[in-house]
Amino acid sequence: MVSDRNAAAADVMLSVSLAEYDTNGDSLIAWSYPQTESAVDEHVLKRAKILMEDKENRLAWTRTQNSWCYLLPIVVNPKQSAVRHLRGFTICVQSKHFDPERFEALAEALAQAYSSKGTPLAILEAYLSVFTVGKFQTYVDSSFQSASPLAASPLKAVVEALGEGAVQLWTAIVLKKRVVVWSDDLPALQSVLRALPALAWHRQDWTILRPFCLGDEEE
Predict the structure, then answer these.
(1) Of 129, 186, 207, 215, which one has the fewest beta carbons inside 10 Å?
(2) Which helix (H) or strand (E) holds 68?
(3) CA dihedral 24, 28, 31, 35 (to 10 degrees)
(4) How far is CA 14 from CA 32, 40, 160, 198, in A?
(5) Which residues lie closer than 8 Å to 192 by C-beta, 6 or more apart?
(6) Which residues contact 4 (CB under 8 A, 6 or more apart)?
(7) Strand, coil or helix: what is 128?
(8) SS3 117
(9) CB neighbours (10 Å) of residue 96?
(10) Which pLDDT does position 218 carry in this prediction?
């Protein structure tokens, strides 16, 4: 049973999944809980492959089927990991809420559990612990405030970088026009993206974002 105190943790998480990459370059969604739809798995795996090629453990977030997917790729160190048979893996947490900092911390805790024990059961144990009591090892869900991801948007830096162009961007956002933002630097791109909805702060709506698009038929 989930207590009222931990209802927030239970409410924000929809699922967790694990994508694995073996030494032959093959990849697949190896495990998920609860079981995720094949469309979600395909969406996640496409992006997880791209992230793994960067060989950096950096969070990326995307959106599919009206939910957020937070992906944390991990390059395996064969000398320090229980999953040394893998080249790498990605933890994906699916949620209804926009909160990159919260889910980066959670994904790191889940990744550490899997890397140290080498079984998806370790991920499940951690996930259920957060779901029921709101914490797992160093991760404490209550330490994240609901308003923080909105306030953390780097709006000032984006406006300063665009100069007079910020007025046109503001007009487009207020009028609900489609705005395409392109970059080959994903962290920089996502930093800019999370600032755009703040131009229409009265709406408090980050669901207008469609981050990490690949330009395929799905999108």
Answers:
(1) 215
(2) strand 67-75
(3) -170
(4) 11, 12, 37, 26
(5) 154, 158, 181, 183
(6) none
(7) helix
(8) helix
(9) 12
(10) 61
Q: Which two tokens stand for residue 132?
A: 């029921």
Query: Residues 163-181: pLDDT tens digits?
Result: 999 999 999 999 999 999 9
Q: CB of 154 within 8 A of CB of 194?
A: yes
Q: pLDDT per residue over 112-140, tens digit each?
A: 999 999 999 999 999 999 999 999 999 99
Tokens of 36: 């995720």
Does residue 67 sit in helix, strand or coil?
strand
Binning pLDDT at 50, 70 and 90, where does residue 200 land? very high
Contact criterion met (CB below 8 Å) for 92 and 69: yes
SS3 call for 138: coil
Segments of the chain assigned E as strands: 13-22, 27-33, 60-64, 67-75, 86-95, 135-136, 139-140
